[in-house]
Amino acid sequence: MTTMSLGRMLLGRLKAHQARRRGQRRATPSAALSRTEHLAPRLLMTADPDDQIQDAIRLGASTTPVTRNDSINVAIDVDMYRVDVTAGQRLSFDIDRPSTSRLDSYLRLFNSAGQQVAVNDDAAAPGEVRGLDSFLEYTFATAGSYFLGVSGYRNQGYNAVTGLGDTNGSTGNYGLVVTNTTPTAPYRGAGRPEA
Known about the structure:
It is built from three helices and nine strands. By secondary structure, the protein is α+β, with helices and mostly antiparallel strands. It starts with a helix and ends in a 15-residue tail after the last strand.
């Protein structure tokens, strides 16, 4: 097989894989199925199954604190989480490392179209000392699903929709705490004074 035809075959398989990820189905000739697969290294990598919004780990409606322990286990790893919010809801996202972790965390918040709406690197949560952990608090003007990307510092230019664009960042274990910090409006019902 010539280099030109091998390149075309690999490009065809890459395009077919991308089409399947978009939900489209394309027929693959049975002869191609019997050949050894030679796909791009990115397609062979299974260590990062949750690096884009379509594969995000669902945290659900965050009306009470949600805690999740996870890790950035390879330098290009991104963990994507989905939260469902109401209009006007305010959430905080707090990363805390165990003492043995070397992770320098980086947080990015995306809307459902994959557009970044907020970002944080190394801010201290209330009552904490500034260090390598990140903290982000955000008020959602519009109800819907939003996506939080957790990665190591330097891996902050990835595309939340495609999962591409990763660069090497730090690694390590972390805990994520999502808390509803929406201010409570005073009760103004009949028979009760306003606060």
